[in-house]
Design brief:
The complex is a heterodimer of chains A (270) and B (85). Chain A is of the alpha/beta class and 270 residues long. Chain A has a single domain, classed as TIM Barrel, CATH 3.20.20.140. Chain A contains 9 helices and 8 strands. In chain A, strands 1-2-3-4-5-6-7-8 form an 8-stranded parallel sheet. In chain A, helix 2 packs parallel to helix 3, helix 3 runs parallel beside helix 4 and helix 7 crosses helix 8. Chain A is globular. The relative contact order of chain A is 0.15. Chain B is mainly α and 85 residues long. Chain B starts with 6 loop residues before the first helix and ends in a 16-residue tail after the last helix. Chain B contains 3 helices and no strands. Classes of the chains: A alpha/beta (270), B mainly alpha (85). The interface between A and B is medium-sized, with 24 and 20 residues. The complex binds zinc ion. Zinc ion binds next to loops of chain A.
Chain lengths: 270, 85
């Protein structure tokens, strides 16, 4: 079965990983801009990273038949210095105009500070002003519930937000219902120790259903698994779920969400 | 949406994994006890204890409740708990 990996940091993965994903049936990936493990010392560091995501990584995945889509944004860990963040945000429109860029992301909160929130507001403003898709990173561990609520409050207060076009990522048992009840797309992250296991992801699919649900590995430079989606597919099969439901989660749902981007032109294999 | 497996079939497939994770958890607690200057007053130990109480209870959404136990407090309206089916 083909699958789409809607959230992976290819820039942090080896070419061997890309090859393994292709062999496992991956036909397209989404790569959000994120924190590369260190703070950039100047705005040029971001410029080069955005070029990497829109020029070099698409070539690397294309060698294995995987189509690459990127998201442009500024992560919450580097959002604390608001004037610096503003310089980075000024770079984004140039990259948002590129054909394989899906929208603004991943943006969000980390420690839920006032400055993070100020930067986040400017990023949302940019996205809504250009009618872009939005991808939100929700904080880790003990901050997740608070940060998810703050993001939902921010979006609820803006009448321009079309909830079908917003993906709130890294949901877990205590946040998925809040996100789905308000009509957003919810993302589950198959990440060892700090997020959800394949078994718990399948539990949430069973409890909440497949509507507006995306499952990703979010594989990056930390302990993570670029084939995590296939592990979840195996759990679904073991529990007796229909192939059509598995396909909906790993293929049709990502396509439905991504197709809302006006620049998205991808003919998926059947 | 419910799974096609019956509860006893589900228990068959979950039992050894649950047993293993329980022993793992017990061994982690023993390891902390054996180390010098173990921190009995550390609030994280109280969190772990409350987590174990949730597991021993009969709520149908224990995973969500454990998550809430490990979350910073914030106002809980609407509740993140799943409504009872
Ligand atoms: Zn990410």
């Amino acid at each position: 079965m083909y699958f789409i990996e809607p959230h992976i940091h290819i820039a942090s993965r080896t070419t061997d990983d890309i090859q393994a994903m292709a062999r496992a049936g991956c036909v397209a990936v989404g790569e959000p801009a994120f924190w590369m493990g260190y703070d950039r010392s100047n705005v040029g560091g971001f410029y080069d990273y955005f070029r990497q995501l829109t020029e070099w990584e698409p070539k690397r995945t294309a060698n294995y038949g995987i189509r690459h889509f990127a998201w442009m944004g500024l992560n919450a860990k580097e959002a604390e210095n608001v004037p610096f963040a503003r310089e980075v945000i000024a770079l984004l429109p140039e990259f948002l105009d590129k054909p394989d860029v899906l929208g603004v992301g991943e943006i969000g909160l980390h420690k839920c500070t006032k400055n993070e929130l100020a930067t986040l507001r400017e990023l949302i403003e940019l996205a809504l002003g250009r009618d872009e898709l939005l991808l939100f990173h929700t904080p880790h561990l003990e901050h997740k519930l608070m940060g998810t609520r703050m993001i939902l409050d921010l979006l609820r207060a803006d009448s321009r937000v079309n909830r079908d076009r917003v993906w709130i990522d890294h949901c877990e048992e205590h946040t998925i219902r809040l996100v789905r009840d308000e009509g957003y797309w919810a993302g589950l992250t198959l990440y060892p120790t700090t997020k959800v296991t394949p078994e718990r992801a399948v539990d949430m699919i069973e409890i909440y259903g497949p509507e507006r649900l995306l499952v990703t590995s979010s594989a990056d430079w930390g302990p993570s698994d670029p084939l995590a989606i296939t592990a979840m597919m195996a759990v679904m099969r073991r529990r007796g779920h229909e192939e059509s439901l598995i396909r909906r989660i790993v293929y049709e749902n990502p396509l439905t969400f991504m197709r809302q981007c006006r620049r998205f032109d991808f003919t998926p294999p059947q | 949406m419910s799974t096609s497996s019956s509860a006893s079939k589900m228990l068959d497939s979950e039992f050894l994994g649950m047993r293993c994770r329980l022993i793992d958890l017990a061994a982690s607690l023993d390891r902390i006890d054996r180390s010098d200057g173990a921190p009995p007053a550390d609030p994280r130990m109280a969190q772990i204890r409350r987590g174990l109480e949730i597991l021993a209870g009969d709520a149908h959404d224990r995973a969500t409740r454990v998550q809430l136990e490990f979350s910073l407090p914030c106002d809980s309206n609407p509740s993140p708990l799943t409504p009872r089916p």
